[in-house]
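Write out this protein's structure.
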Amino acid sequence: MAPSIQLHRFLALQDKERTHIFTFLVENPQEISSFDVRSREFQFAGHRWYVYTGKPNNEYFSFYLRIVNLGKDVRVHTVYSFNVVNLVNYQNNYTYHSPPTGRVFSRDDDALSWGWKEFIRRETLLKPNGGFFFDGNKVLVELECKAYKTVFEENVELPKVGQENPYPMVHTSPFSVGGFAWQIRIFPDGPDVENRGNVALFLHCTTSNHLAKIKARFLIEGQPSPTVYEHTFPPNSISEMPSGVAFPNKGEFMKSLKENQLRVGVEFMSVTEVNEVHVTLSEPNSCPTVCVTPFEDLSGCPWVLKTLQAVKLKLKMDQNEKTTSGLMEFYHRHVMWNATLVSPGTEDVSLNVALNTKGPLVGYFGENWSDADVIKSDLAVEDLALTDNPYRTDVDDGYDRYSYVSIHVEIVSNHLLYKTPTPSPTGDRERKLLYSARKDRTQVHARYQELLRQKALLASKCQNLTRERTRLIGDEKNDVISQIVPDFSKFLSDVMLDLSQRAASKGRLQARETRVGRPYKATPQLDEKERQKKLADYRENFSLLLSDARPNLSELAVVQQYMGEFKEILTRFIEAKAAIHVSGVITSGSLGTNTTCSNRWDVDFVLLSSDLPRIGHVMWMPSFVVALAKMLEEGAIEGKLPDCSNFTYTNYSVQFKHKDVEVDILPAYDWQHEGGFDALYEELLRQRTSENLTWFCPAAAQRQKLFIEEQPDQVKDLIMVIKFWRNAADWNERKWRPTSYLLALLLIRAYENACHVVEGSLPSNKTVMKSFVKLILSTGNPRPAPMRIAWSRFYDPKDYNIEYSGSMSGECPPIVQDPANPANNVAEMPVSWLPFRRMLEAWAHDLGLMESPSLTCDNHDDGSTPAIVLCNECGNLCSECDRYLHLHKRTLFHQRQVFKEEEEAIRVNLHEGCGRIKLFWFMALADANTLKAIVEFKSRAPGGQRKHVTTGTGVCRFCGRSSDDGQLAVGNVCSDPACQQHAARACTRTHQCGHLCGGVKDEESCLPCLQPSCNPALNQDADDMCMVCFTDALAAAPAVQLDCGHIFHYSCCEMQLQKQWAGPRITFSFMHCSICKCEIKHPSLDCYLAPLRDLVREVERKALQRLEYEGLNECESITAIGGRFFNDRVGFALSKYAYYMCCKCKKAYYGGEVRCDAEAGGADIFDPQELICGACSDISCAQICPKHGTDFLEYKCRYCCSVAVYFCFGTTHFCQPCHDDFQRITALPKSDLPHCPAGHKTRQLEGEECPLHVVHPPTGEEFALGCGVCRNAHTF
């Protein structure tokens, strides 16, 4: 389908910058080829606009904003941005902003459009799982415009003042803003006697029948800008003189004018349309229950204002029956409006009453439906009945006597929106969060300025405190003051010093690389004999491991007591030395969650304070931590923090030791002062990068602690065991060491998995540990997407999408979503999970939690690739290493043997409906749908014994034939003509894994490697048969991967598209994937697909045209919800009408209904030369349609009352059934033929009405039906 851009949603924010947000739905962006795709025009800032896009090159899409019909000397200023919405994660949106001062749209400078040529990469936008492309063909693009204004300026030559013309007037050129025509009128000597001696300016509105409400100010070059004023213009009127637009016509300013020319102008902030509606009072003292008053807006769209009466006056704007006439399907109007009760008898606007005080109301109006807000005013109906009411007008024209009240209906906006038939792509919650984020975006600058102001104020206060402290200390009578007054200046100077050093560095991350925290110290290892004895005891009695992991209870109580006392000392010291108030301290870590193991004591103190900034951590937190670490270290030296040593810090924590306990201090903002955790979670959605999100982790410490504490005692004991193992292992570096919190969460999930296995009872400790080991080792299995682990204790994980942001190559670690912090992926530490899995697997084997490890390839460094071949020289090898290591002539004759376990192993797979059984020497494939199969035997020694590989024979990459040919020894192609033909078409590039590409030449991106060992995530691999030919495996010929992801032989796809449909009737199933039935798409097949797509469009156009002329556009099959063809007119038309290909003009022509073709049996054997359309038949006796020509010319079947499909012998037209029986039918005498109505195969029908609804000659004679579209034919 053709690409399009439709305005899908509109939102006007009630903020200072008057932000307007337009959401556009871009359909079929993959079909965009040039700058020819534009939206419908929409209204904004009093002008008409449209957005357009294109593909300037093969890599990027572009987006532009353009203004329509802008007048001369008119300039429009606006600040705007384009935003391509990522529906998976809004933090990945692509957004480009105009300069902060905005752009100027003007005709004079040829600046009617602004935008970005290289906005977003094509591959990023169209990536199936990228989040931008949804529903297969749609993209959401948002346009945000704000701070807009329209400026008109022109030089005017002032006329001379004389007795003949005492009050001369000159005006500017007319210009248009907001759909109204304007002029500025200038009086050089005032408009009247009272204003003589002044230059006066007036704004003139020349549009009749409508009122205009503006917010504007005059511009006079060389004069101060007058104040902004608001005014409502009656039709064809001149404004009253506002203050500041008159100035003396004598003075230095007037003398400075060159050639007596004055540059004047007007700046419009807003222009809205106002319609005055008279609501008639049916009786002198009451309002009718419902009064319907019609009116028409400036665009000619008719509306009605419904006045509803109860005790209070209620108003509702509704559509007139003509409002939505002519609307195309899926379109509706979005209108924002205000209403004001006015007093027509006075010019005092202060008497006007705004009937809605909460901003403009919104109404949606579609075909035969409306959804509009109702104004519920506080105005009592009975007050309108008073005779002296200033809002009531009495009319007595001699014929009729009535009363009415005047209401000004202000049309703020009127947009035509496109509503997709499917549900909105963004839910209410996500949309509200997105709009809320946009509102907050406008406040970020104000928050930043407020932080700077608070910083300056704090610095000023500290200076005052320092001076006062110095003065008090200098007083001999106040010696004790030096011990009471806190000294904040040292702490603040350290903060400012580190800030300046970081600001002077080239990158903010420079300091982060050096702040690695406490150095890693390996735990002393036991003697090997002692270690083996311990492991043997643990294998025999697992409870001994639990006992060794648990801390001594009496010692634990002592540690908890003195750490509690130390927390109080630490809190008082920080409050006394730092310029913050600590509102709370959360004790977490192992001591805080009661999961301390015997070989390490640690605790985390999270300092909560509302004095800290809530956002922008990267700017202030590292410097704050540095100053805090220096302050604590000085306190330890002075003895105020006893028994503290080994101070260090990271970007977000201070680390030291208190006695034997490792302590971490983590400052965090106290979100209880901002709305609690809900406010924290909303802020997390606004942060864009994982680097920003890590700063918020300590703020959720309370819920992290609660989540661990809620776990059963068995889980806490096993957490101690895992920490006990982790602390005793040698990790070489801290970055390979998993965190305590990660281990705890993984063990909790393992416990949950074990509980599902043993339903009805609690799992044993060993069962949980086996589940834990299985969970960790499964993370090493290759998978297309990472494993996701999450809990719904405090939030719904579906509302928060997080991704792994690390840089590990070749790994796909899990995503462990913090149950307390939805934006935190706990699994990002350690840096690599490979050492974690290796060491855990070895420990599990030592404890007997796993079976003996299988043999792995000695040539791989990962320690996990299984070996299948034993070489006497090279050792254990996998299949790929065996192949490559034995290509060289020096290694060709190594003695190798396949492992017995590998040879006898049976592997069963189900790939895309194709079942497969594989042994080392045998493979069988079968497809249940086609009942076709392939059986392949690999070479074995005589007698069925396993064969030793003793020679370096080569194998053809296509047919698999073995030979001692030198070319084959390096993996080339044999001399078979078919293989050589494949080689001429095949890609010659090599994948990183070392395998040759199995695709075709000149592809932009190669076909993925089809070897199962390289890409096990593929649903099809090299051993699967091609599901088109069902003859050879995919590796037997060059293959292509279609856009749907399925892989077939290129030659099979080529042959399928060349053969086209089977039978005479045109069908398009051959253009669909054989597996998923999606449309075939691949660049190398475009030469075949392009003409076929043209044919599809031609058949669809003709079928829809016939459907419309037959009045079936809204038939039950299309409108019935849940039906096969619900809202699918094209599918219904193609299933109803049969079309055939004319052998002469090669165009599709109508040949009756599909059911007629089905009744005839389809006729697989036919002569294509007999398929001739009406236009290519003998048209000498046919009436040519003046509108459609011969495109839809149809003939009647000579032997029945049906539309003809075949034209045979150069003289005779047949329908499908009669053509199948033509030998019998043509031999019948004319007297034996049935009369009208006649059925297929000379069958006489009952009744008198012809199925074709036309009068025609007797059966047996040729007859041209004429234009099939205009005739409105109805076949049976």
